[in-house]
Design brief:
Blueprint: H1 2-21, H2 23-43, E1 58-59, E2 64-65, E3 71-73, E4 78-80, E5 85-87, E6 92-94, H3 99-129, H4 135-168, H5 172-176, E7 180-181, E8 184-185, H6 194-202, H7 226-231, H8 234-251, H9 258-264
Antiparallel strand pairs: 1-2, 3-4, 5-6, 7-8
């Protein structure tokens, strides 16, 4: 009986030890996510005047006119074209000039962490089974696997979020503060469609998408808007001609048509 209690107690302690061993991992992941939130949203998010307003947007700190989607960074103390956020990991603002490079940096980092984790995992299994008894190497392998997995999870979440922003043609600031146009607030005001949204960041030539070469279109001062594209949509433009045709048909007496009138003449 006592032996059973001892076995049960030792098993419970073993389970508690395994659960508690994951506490440092969760703490580090939460610290990384919190640091990103605190640096980007709490520290760098300033009062934003939305783009496409009739009034001229002026920066009181830089004493310059701010183009659409341009915002002042309180950390860099300068206005940044199409500002997304201030990244503490690269100690620089992410905006129009380097947003493509930032996405490539995230993608390459995710692949690097995945490569390290998959190649080290086999050695981790060998150390776990006791096939490689070197204590010093075991510490390096365990720590390397732990760091690779931790950064892989964090970077995948961050990279996935920015991929979603690219697919909607939004910045991080615009995702938390809806832009206001002349017609009113519109959260999808710059959404041009999935393919065109990607081209706004990576350019029209697909061969340059994976290469760290500047290929983003435009100058960062003006951007195409969804309302402009809808006004140029041929389907919407044809509605006016359809309405004109209906008005012309109403001018003829009932039971007749334009074709009938032409045949009579």
């Amino acid at each position: 009986m006592r032996r059973g209690w001892k076995m049960a107690l030792s098993g419970g302690l073993r389970c508690c030890r395994r659960v508690l061993s994951w506490v440092p991992v969760l703490v580090i992941v939460l610290v990384v996510l919190w640091s990103y939130y605190a640096y980007v949203f709490e520290l760098c998010l300033v009062t934003v005047l939305s783009p496409a307003e009739k009034a001229v947007r002026f920066c009181d700190r830089c004493h310059l006119i701010k183009p659409d989607r341009c915002h002042h960074c309180s950390v860099c103390a300068m206005c940044v074209l199409k500002m997304d956020h201030h990244c503490p990991w690269v100690n620089n603002c992410i905006g129009f000039s380097n947003y493509k490079f930032f996405l490539q940096f995230l993608a390459y980092s995710v692949l690097y962490c995945l490569y390290i984790a998959t190649t080290v995992f086999s050695y981790f299994i060998k150390y776990w089974r006791g096939e490689l008894p070197s204590v010093r190497s075991k510490f390096h392998v365990l720590f390397l696997l732990f760091v690779a997995c931790m950064f892989f999870v964090s970077l995948v979440i961050l990279f996935g979020y920015h991929c979603w922003l690219v697919s909607r043609n939004k910045t991080t600031l615009e995702a938390f503060c809806t832009p206001v146009f002349t017609s009113g607030p519109e959260k999808n005001g710059f959404n041009l469609g999935f393919i065109k949204n990607i081209q706004q960041v990576f350019g029209d030539k697909k061969k340059f998408w994976l290469i760290p070469i500047g290929s983003s279109p435009g100058d960062g001062h003006s951007f195409p808007m969804r309302s402009m594209n809808e006004s140029q949509n041929p389907l919407l433009a044809n509605e006016e001609t359809w309405e004109d045709n209906e008005d012309d048909n109403q001018d003829y007496p009932e039971g007749s048509s334009s074709l009938a009138v032409e045949t009579e003449t």
